[in-house]
Amino acid sequence: MIKNWMTVLTCLIAVLLITTACSSNSNSEASKENDNSGSNDDVVTMAIISTWDTLNVYNTSGNYGNAVADQLFERLVYRTHDGKIKPRLAQSWEMATDSKSMTFELADNAIWHDGEKLTANDIVFTVKAMTDESVDNYYRSEFAVLAGTDENGVAEKSDNVGVEAVDEHTVKFEFKEAVNEDRILNAFLSFLYILPEHKLGEGDYASINDSEFWNAPIGAGPFKYVKDESGTSLELEAFEDYYQGSPDFKTLVIRVVSAENLTPGLIKGDIDVVAMGSIPLSDWDSVKNAEDIVAAPVEDYTYQYMLFNLSESNDAFHDSRVRSAFDMAINKQQIVDKLMLGEGKVAVGPMPEYHPYFNEKLSGNSYNSEEAKKLLEESGFDFNREYRMLVPQGNQVREQSALLIQQDLAAIGVKISIETYDFATLLSMLSEGEADLGLLGGGSNIDPGESSVILKPGDSRNYSLLTDSKWYDIAEKGAKLTDFNERKEVYDDYQIALAEDQPYIWLYHQNNLWAYNKRLSNVPIDDFVWMNFGTWNWKLSN
C-alpha cells in the first residue's frame, strides 16, 4: 500500500515539475515577445527602416538619427507638414527690424531628465560647442548663418559666436547679415538639438564626441533613455516632468524593421507606428483594408537622386553632356508608375511642384535613349569601363529603381554594377570616393536652399565630392535675401541651373506610405516628413 502511495506521489511530483517547467518556459517566451512588441498596454513601438547608427545626435548620419533625437532632446520650434511653425521650447520669437538678429522667449518650466533646469545658457553652450572646429557636427553648415562663424559654420572664436543668453529664459541669435526669418525657423533650428551644459560642459569641447554621455544620454525631450541594442532597438521611458505634459504611455520602443516586415508587424500588433520608411507598395492595399490600422499616404518634400563621383580623381562625369545623357536615359515615369503605383511624382529638381518655391516654368529632360547615347558618343565617354553604383538597404523602391536604372543605362551601352550596403557603411564609402554612382535621398526641411548642402564643396553631405561651387553660390545668393519674391526669383534661377547642368540626377518624389494602429490617436503623421513626431500628444487607448 505504502509502496503504491509512494509511486503515485512520485508521479504527481513529476507531473507538477513538468507542468511548472512548461509554464515557466511559456511565460518566459511571452515576456520576451512582449518586450519587443507594441501589444503591451503601456508600450508603443515605432518602426524605422534603417539604423540611427549612434545616439550622438550631432554625429549621426541621415534622418534616421533625427527620429531618435526628437524624442530625447528639445528643439525650439515644431514644424508642420506645410512648413507652418509652432512653439516648442520657444514660446514666442521676434525678428529684429534689420533682420540681423532674432530673439526667442523660452518656456520657464523645462527641465532635464535628471531634474536640472534647462535655461538659455544651455542653448549658448550647445551653439558654441557645435561651432567649435574640434567637435564633429554633421549639421555644422546650418550654423554658418550665425555671426562669428565661417562659411562652413566653424567659429573663429567661441566667445564671438552670435548667440547670447539675455536672461535665464531668453536667447538671442545674431546673424552675419540680414536673413529671411523662414530660413532660421525652417533650416537652422531644424538641427539645433539642445545639449545639457551641466553634463557636457566640464571638459573642453574636443571631449564631447567621445564622452560617455552618449552611452546613456540625458536630454529634455518627452522620453528618457532606458537601454538600446547597438542601433537596432532603443527603449525609452516617458518623462513625467516634461514641460508640455507627460506622454500618454509609459514606454516607447524604436525598432529598426526591414521594409518587408513592416506590414506583418503592423497587422500582428508588434508595430504601432511606421515612422520612417514607406510600407512596400505591394502591401499597401492590405494595410489600407486592415480593420485596426490607419493608413496615411503623405505627400513628401524629399527627393531621391543619383549622384556622380565628381572628385578630381574621377573624370568620367566632369562633362555635363555625360550627366545630361544619363538623365535622358533613365525612364523616371516608369519608376513612378511601375514601382510606386503612381504614389509619387517625377522629379525635375529638388523641389516638388507643390513646394512654395517651385519654378513653374521648369522642364526637365525628356526620356530619350537615342539622344542620350548620341550625347555620350560626342563627349568621348568610355563605354568599355564598368561603373560601380552603391545603393543603401531598406527602401524597396530605391533598391528596385537601381535595377531599372541599370537596364536603362545598359540600353545605351553603359555597364553598371550594383552593390547594396547598410546606410552608415554606404555613406562612409561614398565619402571616400569608393564608387562612381550612388542612390540617396534628401529634403530635411522646406527651405528652398535645403538641397544646396549637397552642392557645397567640403560639406559632409556632399557625397558627390563636388568641387565646383557655382550652383551652391546661386542658392547662397537667395539665402541672403529677406523678401519672398526676390528669393523666389533667385531660386527659380537655381532650379534652372541644376536642370541644365545636372550635377545630380533628380529621380522622383515619393509619397510616404505610413500607418499606425487605431489604439493610437492624435498622431500628426503628416508632420513626420520634418522629423517632428509630437509623441507627447499621442493618445493611447486599450
UniProtKB/TrEMBL annotation:
GO molecular function: peptide transmembrane transporter activity
Leader peptide range in chain numbering: 1-26
Similarity-based family: Belongs to the bacterial solute-binding protein 5 family.
Keywords annotated in UniProt: Signal, Transport
Protein species of origin: Lentibacillus populi
Protein name, entry field: Peptide ABC transporter substrate-binding protein
Keyword Metal-binding assigned: no
Cellular component terms (Gene Ontology): ATP-binding cassette (ABC) transporter complex; periplasmic space
GO biological process: one example: peptide transport
Domain (Solute-binding protein family) ranges: 84-453
